[in-house]
Amino acid sequence: MGLINAFTSSPQKQQLQEPPPASAGFPLVRGRKKRALLVGISYAGTKYELRGSVNDVKCMSYMLRERFGFPASCILTQEDRDPGLVPTRANLLRALRWLVEGTSSGDSLVFYFSGHGVQKLYMHGHKVEGCEEELWPVDFDDDSRGGVILDDEINATIVQPLRRGVKLHAIVDTGHSGTILELPYLCRLSRTGGNWQWENLQSRLSAGKTAMSTSGGLAISISSCGGDSQTSQDLFLGSAYTSAMTYSLIKAVESEPGTTYGRLLTAMRATIRDSGREFGGMGPIGTFFRRVITFSRAQQEPQLSASHTFDIYKKPFLL
């Protein structure tokens, strides 16, 4: 059975505090082979407001039900009515711990984030020595840039604890989140697909940092990287917004069930490059999208990183 825990945002700021035990206030999922944490932050009422993040969560939930067998009865969608589920820094860290708590071989986990993300470059003269990435919870401090969630925190919380036989997919839809999980390997894929190779990312990390892998499990990240933007790129069609990367991911899955990682990334990039065209050939999910989103031009480049290398044109994309 599958369980989805979906967050949407509240404009209210809350006092930062150390997260309580991960299981407190969260569903009991021991024995279930699938669980997912979906986070969509709109930053409503602030200058950083996003219009598509909440719809992104709805679309991802729909895809998981329709294409990956998550029963509707096991989908839990929480908005900002429950203070324990508002995506503050404390609550997000607690939810990330919940995601990996008590897992065993054969479990499949999904972490999805749509919101703001920032990449910081560390320079020595004119040379880039490394970079650090962060996600912005709803209560991050605009003045001090405090209260963010750093890439090494995410790695320590959901990557390093992964046991052998456990699989994690992190789908991070922000303007810059290419190495947000600090996984050791980045897949370099040619613009038209076909040619690819894995790059060891250690040289791109900040001085003194190490790309920490799992405890035997498999971690895979699909994230966005593009320009100087800090945000996920919104698309609009009719009555609501969604983001470019999330749309392109769902379109690729719907257009080719059982697709491989290589074909998935190639299709996603083609969709984003061709944004503005009428979308079709998406079956039932296409009907759903036509009800909730619109499509306009946005530039993001989906990236694939992983804890272990594999043949991206042979390994199927399965959540």
Largest sheet: 9 strands, mixed
Q: With helices defined by DSSP (H or I, 4 residues minimum), what is the helix count?
A: 6
Shape: globular
Mean pLDDT: 76
> β content, as a range?
15-25%
Helix and strand sequence = EEHEHEEEEHEEEEEEHHHE
From the coordinates shown, what is the CATH architecture? 3-Layer(aba) Sandwich
- SS-based structural class? alpha/beta
N-C termini distance: 12 Å
- Write down the CATH topology: Rossmann fold
Tell me the total number of β-strands.
Answer: 14
Radius of gyration using CA atoms only: 18 Å
Look at the structure and give the CATH class.
Alpha Beta
Q: What's the number of structural domains?
A: 1
Write the layout of secondary structure elements.
Elements: E1 4-8, E2 34-40, H1 53-68, E3 75-77, H2 89-100, E4 108-114, E5 117-124, E6 127-135, E7 149-150, H3 151-159, E8 167-173, E9 185-189, E10 196-200, E11 218-225, E12 234-236, E13 241-243, H4 244-255, H5 261-273, H6 283-292, E14 301-306
Parallel strand pairs: 1-2, 1-3, 2-4, 4-8, 8-11
Antiparallel strand pairs: 5-6, 6-7, 9-10, 9-14, 11-14, 12-13
Helix pairs in contact: 1-4, 1-6, 4-5
Protein name: Peptidase C14 caspase domain-containing protein
Region (Disordered): 1-26
Biased composition (Polar residues): 1-17
Describe this structure in words.
The chain has 319 residues and is α/β, with parallel strands linked by helices. It contains six helices and 14 strands. The protein has helices at residues 53-68, 89-100, 151-159, 244-255, 261-273, 283-292; strands at 4-8, 34-40, 75-77, 108-114, 117-124, 127-135, 149-150, 167-173, 185-189, 196-200, 218-225, 234-236, 241-243, 301-306. β9 and β10 form a beta hairpin. The longest helix is centred in the first third of the chain and has 16 residues, at 53-68. The protein starts with a strand and ends in a 13-residue tail after the last strand. Mean pLDDT is 76; it is low at 10-17, 227-233, 235-239 and 291-298.
